[in-house]
Amino acid sequence: MKHCLIPVFLIYFNIAFSQTTILRDADIEKMVLEVSPDSLQSYIRTMVAFGTRNTLSIQSDSKRGIGAARNWVLAKFNEFAKKSNGRLSAFIDTTTLQPNGKRIDVTTLLGNVVATLKGTDPDDKRIFIISGHLDNMRSSPTERIGDAPGANDDGSGTAAVIECARIMSKNNFPATIIFVAVSGEEQGLLGSTFMSEKAKNESWQIEAVLNNDIMGSNNSNETNIINNTKVRVFSEGIPAYETEKVAANTRNLGLENDGKSRQLARYVKEVGERYVDHIELVLIYRNDRFLRGGDHTPYVQRGFAAVRITEMNENYTRQHQDVRKENGIKYGDLEEYIDYEYLRKNTAVNLANLANLAKAPSRPDSVKIEVRKLTNFSSLSWNAPATGKTKGYYVLVRETTSAFWQKKYFTTETDIRLPFSKDNYFFAVQAVNENGNESLPVVPMPGR
User: Fold this and answer.
1) Does the predicted TM-score (pTM) go above 0.85?
2) What is the longest distance spanned by two Cα atoms in the chain?
3) Domain 8-24+363-447 is of which CATH architecture?
4) Considering the domain 35-359, what is its CATH architecture?
5) pLDDT tens for residues 176-204?
6) I want to staple 119 with a disulfide (CB 3.0 to 4.6 A). Which of 19, 91, 176, 331 is the partner?
7) Three-point CA angle 72, 74, 76, nearest 5°
8) What's the CA gap between 302 and 182, in Å, rounded?
9) Hey, where are the domains in the chain?
10) Is 8-24+363-447's fold the same as 35-359's?
């Protein structure tokens, strides 16, 4: 994004040059530097050593199976809690699954390992979630006996969750952050469905969910592309949960690419590239890949903003495969295929975004664009956010055909008049504090 961080009174003058300004919060920079490839490697090697983490595998063994794996994750969270001044707490949230004639063939206790880093502002009810799935599978989703390393799918995502918890639990944030290693993903997104339904029923104020799944390997089969400088962010456009009336209004305003999850994806890209060097976040305008599913989807289906972060080039000889050698090809999701520098960068992208979101003020309220007159100027107004100390606001501008925000204007007021036609551009408003931590953008609705 080109950042034009200039006072509003200068926007009417012709600017003879443009510049890119990178503003980094020193505390977030420090946390990003703490992300350790060695720590990530130790987490993945421990998870692989459990033999199998299939949701249907043994739960009573202390060294093998999903039960041992989730107890270990809980122990790590509790270890981090000792340095959190009482703000981090963790438990295994369980539910009983009945046979469904599909991927659950026996009554099974499902457990999500959840660690909550309580926000320091009692008035700030916002929640930000980072997720990875602890369970894995061999070639068959119900095969629970044989070894299934699951180093990348999804040891990588779970390792990112644990590492973020380790680092962030030592720091303070106004809003609450939840770190979760879910189970039942390979059985049909069951763990995330359980958690997202609970969140909806209990009216959690979830602002964003970052789901990490298959994010630690740098190469593809068939095309043989090797690249550890790009990672994909999948996001939905028009939410499937919207009523036809709301969807019709979205199409009428041309906001098909400005739903909650799509806005979150743009935010993740900008903040991730701001704090992490040598990584490009590639926005994919789909909720997920063909024939596949991810733990962000149950949140999206219940009205929450959620995205999936996944490596750029997938290798299908290493996903959902029994470990074997066949026709000269070595199959299996083995630890030796993890690129820990790539995983470090992708983990740091998550951390930077969680920290920036949780430190920022809440979003501006009642953002409106005036539509009473035919004019080549656009007038926007909004109310101050409900929580957080606000230095001012960024007003974002982009052409209707642009995937990304192209201009950014700063103002301390709660209204602005810009020399851009509302017919030719999209707009959004963010609240920002003294450290430059900005809220998620809010797209204005027509106001009179």
Assistant:
1) yes
2) 71
3) Sandwich (2.60)
4) 3-Layer(aba) Sandwich (3.40)
5) 999 999 999 999 999 999 999 999 999 99
6) 176
7) 70
8) 17
9) 8-24+363-447, 35-359
10) no
